[in-house]
Design a protein that fits this description.
By secondary structure, this protein is mainly alpha-helical. It is built from 13 helices and six strands. The chain has a domain of 91 residues. The strands form three sheets. A two-stranded parallel ribbon has the order 1-4. The chain has a two-stranded antiparallel sheet with strand order 2-3. The longest helix has 16 residues. The protein is globular. It starts with a helix and ends in a 6-residue tail after the last helix.
């Protein structure tokens, strides 16, 4: 919960606001310095010249995409035929994971999410090579449940080892299913709204309450939920963090405390407002 706490409270409101009327070109760096607020603890940290930021251990962000739907990067002065002729145009982290599983028996013992612990992604050559030193964590990019097939593909990657192709990923007990969703059902991953509970469980540590409410609305509007009430009862406690704060600010009642029933009703009211937005009709 630490990351969610830090980002939620650091980005609540600006510490300082400044407006200047002038004709000169706007200096963004100077504007940032003028509006920068440093607390006493941060000032002491800087006076002692401690490191300001660091990242340890390394984290590899793993791509997920449907067949032939990966991103392609090229410069603006390149022609389309020259882009298509590039030999590595169809190579991605995911497709090269398939390729590595074809030629490397040891690789087949790892899930896609475990791969960076034993292999290193060479972005220049676009291939996985055996890790010779160091250690790396990894995470598969987040996919919204409303993405449907892409979401189910991501789910399979967390439960299937050694796949050699997209078709192989859809093969369960010798049967190649037509869609990733059907393959998930064959594995028993789509029962009793388990996939939607997993989606909330993954989002809760890093997502704010308004975003969780929006996620709930998107799931019940665009996904097949068997028991909406059960899903709400399971997760509404994570959707009200901002409600008490907004009510205290609105009514200047710093000691305001709401009961669970009141908070639950406020969450239902907020969900109702989201459901009434034009894009949900």
């Amino acid at each position: 919960m630490l990351i969610k706490y830090l980002f939620k409270y650091v980005s609540k409101e600006a510490d300082r606001c400044r407006m200047v009327m002038k004709k000169e070109t706007n200096d963004e760096i100077q504007a940032y310095l003028n509006c920068r607020f440093i607390c006493p603890y941060e000032a002491v940290w800087r006076l002692f010249q401690f490191p300001i930021h660091s990242r340890s251990p390394a984290i590899e962000r793993l791509q997920v995409h449907l067949p032939l739907q990966h991103h392609v990067f090229f410069s603006g002065n390149e022609s389309l035929p020259s882009v298509l002729r590039k030999p590595e145009i169809n190579k991605t982290m995911l497709t090269e994971w398939f390729e590595r599983n074809r030629v490397d028996v040891d690789a087949r013992d790892l899930y896609y999410s475990q791969f960076p612990s034993k292999y290193v992604w060479d972005a220049r050559q676009k291939e996985w090579i055996i890790r010779s030193r160091g250690f790396c964590f990894s995470r598969i990019v987040y996919v919204h449940p409303a993405a449907r097939e892409l979401y189910f593909l991501r789910m399979l990657l967390n439960h299937v080892k050694g796949a050699k192709s997209f078709e192989d990923l859809r093969q369960i007990s010798g049967i190649v299913f037509a869609t990733f969703q059907l393959a998930c059902k064959a594995l028993g991953l789509l029962g009793d709204d388990k996939e939607w509970s997993d989606a909330f469980g993954e989002a809760i540590p890093t997502t704010s309450s308004p975003q969780l409410r929006q996620l709930f609305v998107n799931i019940i509007m665009f996904c097949e939920v068997a028991d909406t009430n059960s899903l709400f009862d399971q997760f509404w406690h994570f959707m009200h963090d901002d409600i008490e704060y907004r009510l205290r600010s609105s009514f200047s009642m710093l000691n305001l405390r709401l009961s669970n029933d009141e908070l639950r009703n406020y969450v239902l009211y907020e969900l109702e407002q989201l459901l009434m937005l034009p894009q949900h009709h």
